[in-house]
């Protein structure tokens, strides 16, 4: 991809193309694109239209403006991640000689404790969608495997073999295998019987046979949260719930970290702070 223009808009376009080639999710690409649009507009107002015109001072001023516009520290930090990844890409492609984002610091903020559904709540969620086999299977997969929403949306029919779920490598995420308990396997089998006929290999489809997209999955789960009377919960909280309940049940930290695809064990360790009681270690996963 080397040799493209240093013009910011051209660099922006090629960066998004690179992210797509790397298998990044559509939501990630959209977020990066929006963040960089903001940066480019800021730079253009300061008469800078070339990537090699951008200095660290410009990025710090952009960061300052975001704070003045009442973006939360967490949102500012995410936008800084976007521009750091962008300029790292430009440096690698030799579009710029120096990376102006190297020493841009992140604002400090306290991470909010993950929302963990109680047994009463996740049972209520199951009951709410029990008559909708597609959504029941989706909820069951989230609760019993801890997979990410993008991973669920990309699941294929042949990813389920020998009581194992194979997650294909994508972007910076490595492939992994997740054991399936009888409950989730039964749910997948039951949904497969009523799944719309389609040449598409994607497991979860709309009634017209098109892939059930991330935004549609999120919207549907939120709707059932509301029906079940579960407040202030998101799709990702189902993943949090899986991790928390498995560790609370005594599952080994390393095993859970591997199953959910955490790059660092320290990411999984954070959930231990939420667990007061200590149970003897178990090598099998707990069925929720």
List the helices and strands and how they pair.
Blueprint: H1 8-21, H2 26-45, H3 56-68, H4 73-92, H5 119-128, H6 133-145, H7 149-153, E1 160-161, E2 164-167, E3 176-179, H8 182-194, H9 214-227, H10 236-248, H11 253-260, H12 265-269
Antiparallel strand pairs: 1-2, 2-3
Helix pairs in contact: 1-2, 2-4, 6-8, 6-10
Keywords summarizing the entry:
single chain, 288 residues, mainly alpha, DNA polymerase, domain 1, hpI Integrase, Chain A, 3-stranded antiparallel β-sheet, 12 helices
Describe what this molecule looks like in 3D:
- This protein has 12 helices and 3 strands, in the order H-H-H-H-H-H-H-E-E-E-H-H-H-H-H.
- By secondary structure, the protein is mainly alpha-helical.
- It has 2 domains: 85 residues, DNA polymerase, domain 1; 156 residues, Intergrase catalytic core (hpI Integrase, Chain A, Orthogonal Bundle), CATH 1.10.443.
- It has a 3-stranded antiparallel sheet.
- The protein is globular.
- The N and C termini lie far apart (47 Å).
The fold-level CATH name of the largest domain is hpI Integrase, Chain A
Q: How many separate domains make up the residues?
A: 2
User: What composes the largest sheet?
Assistant: 3 strands, antiparallel
As laid out across the biggest beta sheet, the strand order is 1-2-3
CATH architecture of the largest domain: Orthogonal Bundle
Radius of gyration, rounded? 22 Å
Report the top-level CATH class of the largest domain: Mainly Alpha
Could you list the spans in which at least 5 consecutive residues all have pLDDT below 50?
A: none
- For the termini, the CA-CA separation is 47 Å
Average pLDDT level: 90
Percent range for β-strand residues: under 5%
Order of helices and strands: HHHHHHHEEEHHHHH
Oligomer: single chain
Would you count the extended β strands for me?
Answer: 3
| Superfamily (CATH H level) name of the largest domain | Intergrase catalytic core
Apparent shape: globular
Helix content: 40-55%
Q: What's the helix count?
A: 12
Structural class: mainly alpha
């Amino acid at each position: 991809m080397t040799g493209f223009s240093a013009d910011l808009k051209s660099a922006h376009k090629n960066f998004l193309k690179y992210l797509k080639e790397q298998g990044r999710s559509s939501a990630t690409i959209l977020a990066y694109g929006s963040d960089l649009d903001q940066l480019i507009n800021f730079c253009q107002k300061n008469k800078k239209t070339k990537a090699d015109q951008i200095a660290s001072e410009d990025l710090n001023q952009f960061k300052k403006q975001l704070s003045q516009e009442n973006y939360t520290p967490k949102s500012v930090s995410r936008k800084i991640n976007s521009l750091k990844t962008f300029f790292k890409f430009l440096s690698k492609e030799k579009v710029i000689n120096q990376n102006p984002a190297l020493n841009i610091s992140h604002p400090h903020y306290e991470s909010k404790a993950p929302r963990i559904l109680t047994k009463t709540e996740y049972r209520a969620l199951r009951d709410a969608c029990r008559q909708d086999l597609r959504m029941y299977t989706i909820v069951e997969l989230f609760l019993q495997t801890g997979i990410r929403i993008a991973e669920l949306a990309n699941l294929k029919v042949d990813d389920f073999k020998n009581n194992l779920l194979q997650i294909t490598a994508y972007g910076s995420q490595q492939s992994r295998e997740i054991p399936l308990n009888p409950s989730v396997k039964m749910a997948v089998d039951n949904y497969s019987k009523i799944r719309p006929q389609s040449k598409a290999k994607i497991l979860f489809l709309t009634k017209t046979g098109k892939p059930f997209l991330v935004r549609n999955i999120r919207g549907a789960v939120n709707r059932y949260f509301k029906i079940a009377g579960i407040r202030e919960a998101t799709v990702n909280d189902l993943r949090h719930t899986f991790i928390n309940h498995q560790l609370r049940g005594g599952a080994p930290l390393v095993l859970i970290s591997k199953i959910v695809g955490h790059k660092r064990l320290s990411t999984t360790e954070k959930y231990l702070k939420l667990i007061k009681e200590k149970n003897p270690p178990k090598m099998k996963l707990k069925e929720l």
